[in-house]
Amino acid sequence: MSLDALIPSAIDGLMLGFVYGLAATGLTLIFGVMRVINLSHGPVIALGMYVVYVLFSGAGVNPYLGVLVAAAVGLALGVAIYFIAVDRVINAPELTTLLATYSVNLMIIGAGTAVFTTTPRAVDVSLGALRGGAITILGTHAVAVALAILATLALYGFLFRTRTGKSIRAVANNRAAAELMGIDSRRMLALAFGIGTALAMTSGALLSTLFSFTILSGTTYEVKSFVIVVLGGLGNPTGALVGGIVLGLLEGVSTVFVPVSWVPVLEYVIFVLILLVRPAGLLGSRA
Description:
By secondary structure, this protein is an all-alpha fold. The protein has one domain. 75% of the residues lie in helices and 3% in strands. It is built from eleven helices and two strands. It has helices at residues 3-34, 41-59, 63-86, 94-116, 139-161, 163-173, 175-180, 185-208, 217-232, 237-257, 263-277, and strands at residues 129-132, 135-138. The protein is globular and about 60 Å long. The mean pLDDT is 89.
């Protein structure tokens, strides 16, 4: 092993971790606000990839404009999923909401397979690279990191600086008390689900500029998102971002020591260890 291999791998993993963290933030936001484990998360990430692909290949739209479209589509789709599949069972046992979102998972994968097949697709975009010694930073990676950070900052600005965002946080903390204060909790829950879905589709859109994908690719990122959420703390958006960075860094460094095929195994080991040793995560769960 040499630093010439370790440092570039660590940097690549670190940069990818920001995008992972964005995906996990959408998952943990939904859980933190309404205590729903969203099993449609993976296919939604894949849909974000296909929004960019369809716009780019069919209409020549710049992939990064496609990212904005994916976010808007994700917001609308998330609200629709909430009212169709989640709203009626929001107060039911957690297994019921789990099955409801899993049914959405199966429908998206089924429809996506019928429309797009499972043939790998790719968005051919190149922004050059920055080189310094043994380190090469691809322009697509740098832009993906920048957009992931901007999306995260926009989320925090919305949640902490706007009236609607504060209403969502109030519903998350105490739904009954929020309703007594005149807040429409049903509308806030739908909006929170929409924002979580928008973040997932945004991360998928960014990932489409980095890797090839199929409609089934979202499953891989869904598993990573669950590992990150547990790593950072259930319902903690800041923990999700930190967990994503940590996981990305571990992925990048581990490829220097072990074959790439073993990386998912290491992620599962981390997942189990965190559950056993510190189930609240690195930064703790949302109170």
